[in-house]
Amino acid sequence: MEIHSLGDLLSFTWGSARTLVELGGAVVGVQLTVSVIGLSMVFYKVLQFTTVTDSRFTTIKNAIQRWGTGDHEGAQKALDKSWLKLAKDVKFGLMKLGTADRETLRDELARRGMAFLRPYGKLLRALEIVYYLSPVLGLLGTVLGMIDAFRHLAAVAGSEKGSSALANGIWQALVCTAVGLVIAIIFTTLHAALQTRLERVSEEVSDILTRVLTVETLSG
Q: What is the pLDDT of residues 44-63, one digit of tens each?
């Protein structure tokens, strides 16, 4: 089938999904439903991570550097223009450097950093459940399919239909395992990519907050 438009793609995808459900039964339907939910979460996380680009972190770092050179007004203006909520936390830390207790300020910035990162870590655990659950559902579908195949075999024992029923039952049952493994592989890869990005963002946040606490020392 040639695909020329989004409608053709959706039609092809829907037809393929229906075929898989017909071959593998209700368990495959559950697997595909779980995978659609998982893909929705992945799409949301990808959009979310597009808001924490390296260039935006660089802007905050440059503002901290300007503060260290004595350009406090310019640093504050740069932070106010930033779209990242972290910029407000950085501004708070810079403004409190000369008055707040250093350890208390360190703890407060750490708390704010964790609050900034928390939304970016959400749903990753749910994605883990998707790729853990898919092979298990596949195995369940295979076992149920094998049970059904042997039940039909027992019903037609001694006839030529027996071997055919067993072969068809096993073939259909293995579809569940194949679908489960494919889903698991895809979501394991996607989860790893998102987890890697989260770790990168965490490193950037830690680096920025450390720069805030040491800016006076480095500029002095």
A: 999 999 999 999 999 999 99
Q: What are φ and ψ of residue 91, in 5° steps?
A: -60, -45
pLDDT of 177 strictly over 80: yes
- Under a CB-based contact definition with an 8 Å cutoff, are residues 153 and 166 in contact? yes
pTM of the entire predicted model: 0.80
Element housing 158 (H / E): none
The dihedral region occupied by 25, where left means phi > 0, alpha psi between -120 and 50, and beta the remainder, is left
CA-nearest of 117, 110, 128, 111 to 48 is: 117
Cα 171 to Cα 193: distance, rounded to the nearest angstrom: 34
Tokens of 90: 């950085």
Structure tokens at 2: 């040639």
Beta-carbon contacts of 132 under 8 Å, excluding residues fewer than 6 positions away, are 184
Cα(201)–Cα(194) distance, integer angstroms:
11
Report whether 166 contacts 149 (CB < 8 A). yes
- Structure-block tokens of residue 161: 């239909």
Query: Do residues 208 and 90 make contact, with C-beta atoms less than 8 angstroms apart?
Result: yes
CA–CA distance, 216 with 102 (Å, rounded to integer):
12
What does the block give as tokens for 43? 């799409």
